[in-house]
Structures are given as C-alpha cells and as structure tokens.
Amino acid sequence: MAPNQKAYLEVEGGKTINCLFNPAEFSMSKSNQWEADQVPGRSAPDLFFTGGAAGTMSLNLVFDTTGTGQAVTAHTGKLLDAMKVDPDLPGHDTTRNRGRPPWVKFHWGDLHSFKAVIENLDLTFTYFSSGGTPLRAKASIALKQYEEDAKWGPQNPTSGTPQPHRLHQFQLGDSLDRLAARYYGDSTDWRLIAQANGVVDPRAIEPGTMLVIPKRLGADGA
Asked: Who has the most CB within 10 Å: 1, 11, 12, 192?
C-alpha cells in the first residue's frame, strides 16, 4: 500500500465517500456461537457450532476543510446519507413499507472490507470559522457485516505493507523538516510527509491543518 493512497468508502449504487485523511487505526471483530451438550459424569461438554455472528468493524476518520473554507458538512453529510433509506435499491417496496439504507465497503489500497451497513455514526465538530461554519470533524463509524463473505478480513496483506499512519495537527512554528526530525529522527525525510499529504509548497501549510505522518518501511516509529 503506497503512503499516498487514500482510503474511501464504497457505497452500494456506485457512490464513494473519500477519506480526506487515512485512519490512524481501525478494528475488526468476529465471533462464533457454540452450544454445549451437557453429559452427566463428564468434566467437559461437547460443543456444537450453531452459526457465526455478523462481523463488525470500527473506524475513526478526520475530515478537515480549513484549507478551502468549505463547510466540512459537505463530506460528513455523505456519511449521514449512507444511513438513509434508498428507494433505488433492490427490494424497495413502498406499498409494504420495505426499504433499507445501502451497504458500504471500506477500501484502502490492497485492503478491502466485507460488505457492511453503518450501524452507528458519531460526528463531533471540533473547529469553526469566525462565522460559525464547521471546518473540522471527527467521525466514529461502527460497521456491521451485511452478508456472508468467504473473504472476511483485510485482503492481500503483504510484508511490505507499511504500518498505519499517524496524524499531526500543524501548529504555528511547525515545519515539515521539524516534523520529520520529530517523527523520524531525520529532518531530510520531510518529503515523505509532503508526498503523503500532496503538499506542493511546504511554506503554505495553514495552522490547524491535519497532516498524515506515514511510517517508513523498516522504521521503528519513534
């Protein structure tokens, strides 16, 4: 997975929700259900598999539009739309009050999640313009598996895949070479940060901007 590859959510029907910043981490959970057959005189029962529970996935995403001044709701609104009933999806029937929101899939380079529905979404707006326009938001997303998938977990993991990125909020007095010295121990590695964030002019980064800090292959992440 190249450092500059951006993650996104695929939405049933062909739409996508782009992640402005790749997640620093995500978690996945899967459980099976077993029942015990108690037999008198035995110290342990026989277990019988009764089915698997839906897998879950949790994501924490950051959306930031301080660089453009556009309301961040232009992005967070797409997440809210993915929780609404879509009348264009298969099986929708207004006469029987049948409808559902679309499924989504999380993609990040070679990683592709199972089909899932957004079970819970928490949005926290953390920064505003002087006029009250929300410019930065954190989104906590809980996904639940929508259908059985033989390839349940992240696909195509390789030993060359870098570790998840970190985020750094750019402050007054920061510079890319100082950040490279802080996170890598080598100020000359500032181009890694610039490339990961699409920075053309390092001197034009606005305070408050969230930057992805990619981990180098073989780096210890100090």
From this structure: 192
